[in-house]
Amino acid sequence: MVGDKSTIEKSTVKCPFCQKGDIDITEYSAYYSNTYARAFGKVKKIPLYHEGHIEVHNKCSNCGKSKSELKEVIEKGKTKVMTHEERIAMYKKRGLPLVIGGK
Ligand SMILES: [Zn+2]
To answer: Would the pTM of this model clear 0.90, i.e. be above it?
Structure first.
């Protein structure tokens, strides 16, 4: 579930390439922040979605893969891909105006 602020979690994972080296990472979860827009004399709250990401702090000491290579693979494994239906359900829940396909 996506909260109002990013949760930051530090952990150590095994290198995805060689399964031997220890890689220190920090995970930043996806979150919403609110921005405010003034329209027609009213102030409207607009949720702004921020994607989660990870930070890799060291290259693999065993196979020597670089931080950027590790980040790409680890991030792919961590990021939960949201289905189209999940996205719609999430937007609906938040009461955002939604136009899909159009009719
Ligand atoms: Zn490695």
So the answer is: no
